[in-house]
Design a protein that fits this description.
heterodimer, A: 147 residues, alpha/beta, Cytidine Deaminase, domain 2, seven-stranded mixed beta sheet, 3 helices, globular, B: 90 residues, alpha+beta, Ubiquitin-like (UB roll), five-stranded mixed beta sheet, two-stranded antiparallel ribbon, 2 helices
């Protein structure tokens, strides 16, 4: 069940974007935080982080608010952008996709980034950050390269 | 005039890669049946039993159809239907 790191798969993410995602996860702890990094279509490089409302406001579930998600879609469509990273936090478990995460994963081009705040909560301290590709229910972990 | 249906990346395998297809129907249900006749397989990804699958969000002219009748939502000429995969998890 433990995923193999497949050679060549990598998420390249800017330090400022990753810091923003971790800050979001800490702020919303113990609820799960969620959002995206969007970038030019086909570039596989994020240009901005968009925090999304967790409509479930839950420590164990997240769901993008459908109205906010549509606004995001419109903005991306107008700018010829796409979702490069879908991120969310786990607040009591490891940064590995849950069964629910896998069943919902429906952005074939996206990197699924998980942040676990279970160790430090809202405080400064260690956080676990891992990234995956999820295609047709198959999870493949990938390297996270920060630049 | 037909209704335009915007197709998300994950479902474009059913539309030959097209980002949008057109169809006809007075309700969302009729529209999906009409589109299914040319793009078989799509309906099963959108509909489960008598309702929409929880994995997808469907909007008619920017309104989430969960609040406007679901599959019975009424359609008019030149409406735009957007299908987005729900982004959710645990």
């Amino acid at each position: 069940m433990f995923p193999r790191l497949r050679f060549g798969l990598v998420l390249t993410i800017e330090r400022a974007h990753l810091d923003e995602i971790i800050a979001h996860a800490r702020e919303d702890h113990p609820d799960e935080a969620c959002g995206v990094v969007v970038g030019a279509a086909g570039s596989d490089r994020g240009s901005r982080v968009v925090r999304m409302i967790n409509a479930d406001r839950s420590p164990t579930f997240f769901r993008f608010d459908p109205a906010e998600q549509l606004r995001l879609y419109r903005a991306m469509d107008d700018a010829d952008e796409e979702i490069v990273v879908v991120y969310h936090s786990h607040t009591a478990t490891e940064a590995y996709p849950s069964r629910t995460d896998i069943s919902y994963a429906a952005e074939p081009q996206a990197h699924y980034l998980l942040v676990s705040t279970r160790e430090s909560g809202q405080q400064e301290g260690p956080v676990e950050v891992r990234s995956y590709r999820i295609l047709d229910g198959v999870v493949t972990e990938e390297e996270v390269r920060v630049d | 005039m037909p209704v335009e249906v915007r197709i998300p990346t994950i479902l474009r395998t059913y539309t030959g890669g097209e980002k949008a297809v057109s169809g006809n129907g007075e309700t969302l249900k009729q529209l999906i049946d009409d589109v299914e006749s040319r793009h078989p397989g799509l309906k099963d990804r959108l509909v489960e039993g008598d309702g929409l699958r929880r994995f997808v969000n469907v909007y008619v002219n920017d309104e989430d159809v969960r609040f406007s009748g679901g599959l019975d939502a009424a359609l008019s000429d030149d409406d735009v239907v957007v299908v987005l995969p729900a982004v959710a998890g645990g």
